[in-house]
Design a protein that fits this description.
Blueprint: H1 5-18, H2 20-30, H3 36-44, H4 46-63
Helix pairs in contact: 2-3
Length: about 60
Amino acid sequence: MTNTAPLILTILQILTTAEPAIIVAVHNLLTGTGTADDLAVLAADKIEWQAIADKAQAEIDKTKL
């Protein structure tokens, strides 16, 4: 099994740079201070997040061939 910690750290760094509103919304929701605005931020990016997940799954599937 490979060490995924560097990859996860890199992804988190990209997200915090590119999507600070997402990080704030997730933080607010996880700490119990979230509002409807935080949910709206996440809902607005839902399609984009799904596209990223689909692409990642396609890459994973390639390694299983």
